[in-house]
C-alpha cells in the first residue's frame, strides 16, 4: 500500500514545493495573466470604439454618397430637360424654316403660274386678233369686190374721221 499513501517526509516536501510554486504563481504569474487579460480587454474595448467610429464614419459616408447620388440625379434631370428644350427649339426652328421655305416656293409657283397665265392670255389675244383680221379681210374683200362699194366705204371712213376731229 505504499504506492497509494505517500510517506510523511515526501508529503511535507511536496507541500513545500506546491507552496513555493503557488507563491511564485501568485506573486508573478497571476499579475502577469491578469495584466494580459486587462490588456486584452483594453484592446477589445479600443477595437469596439474603433468599430463604432468606423460605423459612424461609414454612415456619414453613406449619407454623403446618397447626397451625391441625389445631386447626380438632379443634374441628370436638368441636363435631360435642357437637351429636351434644345431639341424642341431646334425642331420648332426647323418647322419655321420649312414653313417659310414652303411659303416662298408657293409664292414663286403662284407668280410663275400668273406669268404663264398672262402669257397664255396674250397669245390667245394675238390669235383672236389674227383670226379677226383674217375674217375682216375676207369680209371686206367680199363686200368691196366692186368699185362702187369701195368708194362708199372710203367716204364713210372719211366722214367718221371728220366727226371725231370735230369733237
Which key phrases capture this entry?
167 residues, mainly alpha, 0% strand
The separation of the N and C termini measures 187 Å
Q: Provide the low-confidence segments as ranges.
A: none
> What's the Cα radius of gyration?
65 Å
Total tally of structural domains: 1
Decide which structural class fits the backbone: mainly alpha
Instruction: Quote the beta fraction.
Output: under 5%
**Number of helices in the DSSP assignment:** 2
3D shape:
rod-shaped
**Which percent bin holds the helix content?**
over 70%
The profile of the biggest β sheet is:
none
How many β-strand runs? 0
* Order of SSEs: HH
Mean pLDDT: 89
Which helices and strands appear, and what pairs or packs with what?
Elements: H1 8-143, H2 147-166
Question: Any overview of this molecule?
Answer:
With 167 residues, this protein is mostly helical. The protein has one domain. Helices cover 93% and strands 0% of the residues. It has helices at 8-143, 147-166. The longest helix is centred in the middle third of the chain and has 136 residues, at 8-143. The chain is rod-shaped and about 200 Å long. The termini are far apart.
Task: Give a short overview.
With about 170 residues, the protein is mostly helical. It is built from 2 helices and no strands. It has one domain.
Amino acid at each position: 500500500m505504499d504506492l497509494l499513501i505517500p510517506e510523511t517526509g515526501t508529503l511535507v516536501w511536496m507541500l513545500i514545493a506546491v507552496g513555493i510554486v503557488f507563491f511564485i504563481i501568485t506573486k508573478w504569474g497571476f499579475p502577469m495573466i491578469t495584466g494580459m487579460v486587462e490588456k486584452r480587454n483594453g484592446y477589445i474595448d479600443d477595437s469596439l470604439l474603433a468599430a463604432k467610429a468606423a460605423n459612424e464614419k461609414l454612415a456619414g459616408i453613406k449619407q454623403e454618397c446618397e447626397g451625391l447620388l441625389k445631386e447626380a440625379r438632379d443634374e441628370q434631370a436638368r441636363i435631360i430637360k435642357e437637351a429636351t428644350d434644345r431639341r424642341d427649339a431646334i425642331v420648332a426652328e426647323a418647322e419655321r424654316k420649312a414653313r417659310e421655305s414652303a411659303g416662298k416656293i408657293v409664292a414663286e409657283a403662284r407668280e410663275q403660274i400668273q406669268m404663264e397665265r398672262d402669257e397664255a392670255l396674250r397669245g390667245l389675244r394675238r390669235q383672236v386678233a389674227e383670226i379677226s383680221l383674217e375674217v375682216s379681210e375676207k369680209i371686206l374683200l367680199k363686200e368691196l369686190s366692186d368699185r362702187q362699194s369701195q368708194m362708199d366705204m372710203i367716204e364713210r371712213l372719211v366722214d367718221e374721221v371728220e366727226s371725231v376731229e370735230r369733237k
